[in-house]
Amino acid sequence: MKKKYFYLSLLLLFLCILSVDSHATNRGKYTSNLKFIPISSSILPTNEVRILYQDSDGYIWLPTYNGLARYDGYSVVNYGLNDGTNLPFNCYLNVVTEDQDGDLWIAAEKGVFKLHKLTGEIERIGSEKLEPLNATDIFCARNGDIWVGGDRGLFRKRKAEDVFERIDLSSRRLGGVSSIMEDTQGNIWIAACESGLYRYDVGRNKFYTYLDPVLYFSNVVFQDDKQQIWVGTWDRGLVKLKTPYTTGRMQYDRFHRVEGEENTLYDNIVYAIEQDELHRIWVGTRSGLSIMHDENDFYSFENYLPGSEIGELPYNEVSSIQRTHDNQMWISMFGGGVCKIQTENKKFGIDRMETVRRLYNTSSIRSIFYAGNDEYWMGIIGFGMILYNDRTHTCVNYQQHPDFKELPYTSAVDAIIRRKKTGEICFGTYSRGIWLYDEKNHKVRSLNSLTEKKFESDCIHTLMEDSEGNLWIGTRQGVYILDADEQFHKLSEWMSGAELEFLHSRIFDIKEDSERNIWIATNYEGIVRINLQDKTYKRYAVGQKCDVQNIFCLLVDSRGQIWAGSMWNGLSYYDRRQDMFVTITSFSTIENKGITNIVEDSRGKIWITTNNTVLSFTMNDAHVLENINYYAVANEMETFSFNPTSCCLLPEGRLMFGSSHGIRSFMVDRTGYKPSSFPLVFTDFKVHNRSLRSMTPEERQRFSEKDVNYTDEIILEYQDNNFTIEFSLLNYVNPQENMYTYRLEGYDDKEIVVDAQRHFATYNNLPAGTYLFRLKGTNEDGVWGNTERTLKVRILPAPWLTWWAYCLYAIAIVVILYFVFRFLRYKMRMQHEIQIGKLEKQKIQEINHLKLQFFTNITHELMTPLSIILASLENLKSGGDKRTLYTVMTANATRLMRLIQQVLEFRKVESGNLKICVSYGDISSFLRSCAEAFIPLLGKRRQLLSFESAPDIIFGFFDADKLDKIVYNLLSNAAKYTPEDGQICVRAALADEYTLQIDVTNTGELMTQKTIDGLFKRFYEGDYRRHNTIGTGIGLALVKDLVALHHGTIEAFSNEQMGNCFRIMLPVNKETYRQGELDETVTAQRQTAFPVPIYINETEEGNEPDEKTELHPVDYTLLIVDDNEELCMLFSNLLSNYFRVKTAINGRQALEVLQEGGIDLVVSDIMMPEMDGIELCRYIKNKFEYCHIPVILLTAKRAEESQIEGYNSGADGYISKPCNFSLLYAQIMNCLKRQERKGADFRKQVVFEVDKLEYTSLDETFLQRAIDCVNAHLNDVEFDQAEFVSEMGASRTVLTEKLKSLTGLTPSAFVLNVRLTAACKLMDGQSKIRIADLAFAVGFNDPKYFSTCFKKKYGMTPKEYMEQGKA
């Protein structure tokens, strides 16, 4: 028996030893190297976070003790805070779940809440639907039912119902529910701490209770991907149910903490359970995080406890674990916030080369060359180069390398390549030329300015070996070639003496294409292509304007396409068809950026780097970029940048780029074209930098009824046109490396690419309109997602720019236009009326003027015969020839009668009272008598008047009185416009059997059509008549009316054959006239209606003027100017008794008479043809030769204005017709006496004061000149009349007449008078002057003659004059 116990003890000891050894082998086996990345607590409402939840949109929801937070990878949106924007929770939140409608249900300390994600509104589930409880868990079943558990038990809300029902045990209420879970079979598992574990069969409506001592403390329930049920207990560890659906005693495996054992569950209080994509069970406990790697191994736990280092677990109580849709693991902690756990290996490698940085204080890589065996030659700024081991992260400086230790120091190596021909590694140094390294023989040789005299620069920027083994060297000062035979050449030698403008330019890169063209990138000379076959070259520039000359890098890809990266103008490719470089402008992220590297990977994809961005793409035959991937480089440091021409393609396909902070590598085979499937969401919409969520519900309704991520359209008022759209790609692995491209259609011309730091788009001052915002995103792999999110943004126009405003404007415009139209029409009507009024006024004024002119003319016409009659009566009183004077008086009385009859006839025509009375008679005889009776009226004009009739005798009906007036007026008009020796003819003929044609023609100036058109107008004044004749202006108008009254017509025309012609067509048959117009009692009409006056010629016998009566001591000659010959004759006869008289019939003729000289006074009528009296007077007064002659005007105008006009023209007298001869004579004598008195006054002056003698300005100037002329020659004895005339610049006659008229002195007497007057002045000034000296001083050569002349003028001798002055 003892032996049996002994063997049993040995067996137990062996098992214990075996267990210890097995546990010892697990130590260090399960290491995940997890990195905990916390979300910044600054964006969380609190660090006390309960159960994490990810909804169907991809958002992570964080229920906290201070509201609900939504996380999108960048920022947090808080709900239920006391900010007035929504219903506040005001309690602790525990769990969040999403129902099938997309709304969130929140289990909280004070019940259940519902968040409508579409609108962002929070709804509290009231007591009428759910009794008050502390809800600790909530979830949505697959059938849409909502389950809630808490301190009051278990509740369910069916999908189609609004009210929660209590689910109780058969015997008691289920209380203290802490966790609810639905398994794959539809059973509901309930964990109630200190109440046990329960399974509820929904189909049978039956509870199964498991009251095991361990399960009694169930706290959380979980089902893994193998449908295994796991239960986390309170202080009893982790339990895996082995018989979960048993109706009896539950069997399970229990995992708990074993003191001192690292690989067991670290803490028995379990808060959360989750499973990752590697099927590992994650357990959140009171003390940290435990991960079970093997469920069959009790000692397979890997525990993470709180630490202080970056990447360690920040807090102990892991309240929940969430596996997101991207298989990223998240944990929340009571008081520790939220952490993201980095579990995947990155597809993009980062080697910050901390070893190098510690040695050299820099890890800026200028060049990379793979030497094999995980070793790289790298150029380091400031320290030359190193040999770096990528596997061990160690390095050796070239000066420590045994093969390079003899080489001098260089600050950097910018280019490293291997020559295929020799196998040497070529190092292009910054200051030591080229080092050529033979690895096999461990030898290094140098090529620089010391070893090669042609080498002008030791600063090497680039190296390239061409297809023939020639090594092309790009330096700071041009290009050199080391050929395959190791001969060194300058490029100018290589190009056979070609003129190369870029010989001394800085060379950044050199490439060779398949056609053996060498492409060279220069600093300021652009791109140079050298053709090695014909030794020619061509230069290219890049940029949209082909003006960029600074090129960093070149690439000739596997398809032969040439690429060029400029310093600041982006990427360009060579277009062979256009023979030019085309700049790529489709991507703003590289536009106007410096391209630092261009390289092609093993799959033919082009990779480029800018300052801090990597871009890969392919290009099709149409030069369209495809398969574009962006790779954002995390900005750990603000100074990060990719170094130029620092890249390397490794044999396994990995790309390495040197940067200012180590190496960035990209595994080409891991960067596929698989599109991203992560949700792309709109996270916020801000108006004037104010989030819609921060607004009250009423304010939000103005913009959208839904949340920005669920709405299709945002409507903004016109003043809200500054807005920001925030967005996110819900990829939580590396959200900082996501990139986005967006475009606002209707505003942006092209897509805008931004990185994760600018996951928003801002637009300011957009005009009203509808815009469509398009958004795409790419994850950290650089693969663009298939999903494009769109959001319509409609900016309403300002109220004054809306359609209804335009309608109002249109209506207003129409109304305004209507009123404007009415106003304009009214204005036009008023203007028209005003215009009509003005025209009427003007017409009235014209008519008044014409009437005034008419009355003036008729007055003149009446006054002239009256003046003749009065003058004849004066002549009769003086004993004139009675027979002649009676004849003159009879003729002028008859003329007065005809004028008065014409006015009366004209008045009758105007009033319509004029009638005709035709009778039968010999018309031709009547017309002949009318013509013959007019012959004496032609007077002295020597005009020939003839009459013709065909046939000689024409009988018919006519009104003799009217026909007489017609013929008289036509003949009177013809006489006015016919020149002297002209012809006037009256022709009568029958146009047909009943129509008489009368033509009155005259020679002279032909009438224009304008004149003809106005002939028959009343008061018409043509240009010729206005300036050449005087008349009433009603004669022809009366003729037309009389012809029309006679049922005839009249017309006027003018031509070279007939001259001016007035043609009258009169009916002579009885039938034409009405009964009241016929007078058959008169048998014949033969006598003309007007008596013929006797014309008295002033040259006829018995009418010669008598000898001038000596009534005045001075002989004077008068000029009488009047267009009426009879009046002119009468005045001549009356005045010839006292003066010599000359006559003229108009102003022109008067000027001719004045030119003959000897005229002392002019008497002129005002109204005359050719030149009227006013114009004649003005001419006389403005003419030097005549300005001294007095002028008296005669006129029928009695108005004061007419008299003022006459005096203003310079007239010396003004007499109105009919004038009294005695008055005329008195005026004449007065003017002559005034003229004579001026001469006497002049002669009496001792001191000449011309301005006091009332001369005209011209006369005053003339006299002063004459006096000055004599005074200038005062002592000149030889100064005589001839010299005086010459000095005055006038003819002797003019000078004599002028002086005679003004001073009454001849020129000789005027000179003598001036000399004597000067002598008086000398004696007044010098009282003791000798007489002889005085005589010589004033131009006398004989003192006795001087004394004689002096005594004759002054009545005393010079001596007596001087003595008188002394007294």
TrEMBL record:
<dbReference type="Pfam" id="PF07494">
    <property type="entry name" value="Reg_prop"/>
</dbReference>
<dbReference type="InterPro" id="IPR001789">
    <property type="entry name" value="Sig_transdc_resp-reg_receiver"/>
</dbReference>
<dbReference type="InterPro" id="IPR013783">
    <property type="entry name" value="Ig-like_fold"/>
</dbReference>
<dbReference type="Pfam" id="PF00512">
    <property type="entry name" value="HisKA"/>
</dbReference>
<dbReference type="InterPro" id="IPR011123">
    <property type="entry name" value="Y_Y_Y"/>
</dbReference>
<dbReference type="InterPro" id="IPR009057">
    <property type="entry name" value="Homeodomain-like_sf"/>
</dbReference>
<dbReference type="InterPro" id="IPR020449">
    <property type="entry name" value="Tscrpt_reg_AraC-type_HTH"/>
</dbReference>
<keyword id="KW-1133">Transmembrane helix</keyword>
<dbReference type="InterPro" id="IPR005467">
    <property type="entry name" value="His_kinase_dom"/>
</dbReference>
<keyword id="KW-0238">DNA-binding</keyword>
<keyword id="KW-0732">Signal</keyword>
<feature type="domain" description="Response regulatory">
    <location>
        <begin position="1117"/>
        <end position="1232"/>
    </location>
</feature>
<keyword id="KW-0472">Membrane</keyword>
<feature type="domain" description="HTH araC/xylS-type">
    <location>
        <begin position="1264"/>
        <end position="1364"/>
    </location>
</feature>
<keyword id="KW-0805">Transcription regulation</keyword>
<dbReference type="Pfam" id="PF07495">
    <property type="entry name" value="Y_Y_Y"/>
</dbReference>
<dbReference type="InterPro" id="IPR036890">
    <property type="entry name" value="HATPase_C_sf"/>
</dbReference>
<dbReference type="InterPro" id="IPR036097">
    <property type="entry name" value="HisK_dim/P_sf"/>
</dbReference>
<keyword id="KW-0597">Phosphoprotein</keyword>
<dbReference type="InterPro" id="IPR003594">
    <property type="entry name" value="HATPase_dom"/>
</dbReference>
<feature type="domain" description="Histidine kinase">
    <location>
        <begin position="857"/>
        <end position="1070"/>
    </location>
</feature>
<dbReference type="InterPro" id="IPR003661">
    <property type="entry name" value="HisK_dim/P_dom"/>
</dbReference>
<dbReference type="InterPro" id="IPR018060">
    <property type="entry name" value="HTH_AraC"/>
</dbReference>
<protein>
    <recommendedName>
        <fullName>histidine kinase</fullName>
        <ecNumber>2.7.13.3</ecNumber>
    </recommendedName>
</protein>
<dbReference type="Pfam" id="PF12833">
    <property type="entry name" value="HTH_18"/>
</dbReference>
<dbReference type="InterPro" id="IPR011006">
    <property type="entry name" value="CheY-like_superfamily"/>
</dbReference>
<feature type="signal peptide">
    <location>
        <begin position="1"/>
        <end position="24"/>
    </location>
</feature>
<dbReference type="InterPro" id="IPR018062">
    <property type="entry name" value="HTH_AraC-typ_CS"/>
</dbReference>
<dbReference type="GO" id="GO:0043565">
    <property type="term" value="F:sequence-specific DNA binding"/>
</dbReference>
<dbReference type="InterPro" id="IPR015943">
    <property type="entry name" value="WD40/YVTN_repeat-like_dom_sf"/>
</dbReference>
<feature type="modified residue" description="4-aspartylphosphate">
    <location>
        <position position="1165"/>
    </location>
</feature>
<dbReference type="Pfam" id="PF00072">
    <property type="entry name" value="Response_reg"/>
</dbReference>
<dbReference type="Pfam" id="PF02518">
    <property type="entry name" value="HATPase_c"/>
</dbReference>
<dbReference type="InterPro" id="IPR011110">
    <property type="entry name" value="Reg_prop"/>
</dbReference>
<feature type="transmembrane region" description="Helical">
    <location>
        <begin position="800"/>
        <end position="821"/>
    </location>
</feature>
<keyword id="KW-0804">Transcription</keyword>
<keyword id="KW-0812">Transmembrane</keyword>
<dbReference type="GO" id="GO:0000155">
    <property type="term" value="F:phosphorelay sensor kinase activity"/>
</dbReference>
<dbReference type="GO" id="GO:0003700">
    <property type="term" value="F:DNA-binding transcription factor activity"/>
</dbReference>
